[in-house]
Amino acid sequence: MSWSAFAALMFMNLLGALAPGPDIVLVTRYATRSRKHAIAAATGIQLGVLFWYTITVFGAAAVLTAFPGILRAIQGIGGAFLIFMGVRSIKGGLELLHNPPADIEEAALRLGSLGQVFRTGLATNLSNPKIVLYLAAMIAPLLPPHPPLWLAVALILGLSLSAYLTFVLLSTVISTSAIRRRMLAAGPWIDIASGAFFIIAGCVLISASVGIAPQLHA
């Protein structure tokens, strides 16, 4: 693999990381109230991404294509989880409307522990296995048929680290004190909008889990 191909993969990876989706919505929601929580969520998300990168580079996309039932099952479970998250986020937003936090410090405390947020980020990312098919489409044309181990490891680490740093930068920018103070009053509506997004994303995943087989064989 040439350096230009490697750089092209990094660039496409960053575009994919910043594309609207559950990961971005989750990190943004936390960042409007707490930098630490946003970075904890981003860390959990990137652990999931590291898992997807690893199995993609080592050929998991071919397995999922050959056995679409596995993909359907994971998507169904992931969709149900996103819907659960969406309902919980909407309930939290409605509670905030009736009992708003006094300041940004209290708003951050209501997000729960960093460990809980980390696990939420990880579960959110793992809920969408179709990232493997996207990554395979991005990586396969530029990767040798049988890449040496050092190249596979370098590619996995490079993709993961670049995406993680992008999420950390996003978390840092959004979570500045000035932005958090301005967004404090909008917190309940951010939760409600995020919840609606998660519910829609979950329904899309569940729908895909029912109809994915013909698409994979098309």
UniProtKB/TrEMBL annotation:
Question: Membrane-spanning regions, if any?
Answer: 6-27, 39-64, 149-171, 192-213
Which InterPro entries does the entry mention? LeuE-type
Q: What is the membrane topology here?
A: Multi-pass membrane protein
Q: What is its main location?
A: membrane
Q: Which GO terms describe its cellular component?
A: plasma membrane
Localization, per the record, is:
Cell membrane
Could you list this entry's UniProt keywords, alphabetically sorted: Cell membrane, Membrane, Transmembrane, Transmembrane helix
Q: Which domain of life is it from?
A: Bacteria
The keyword Mitochondrion is annotated on this UniProt entry: no
This chain belongs to which protein, by name?
Answer: LysE family translocator
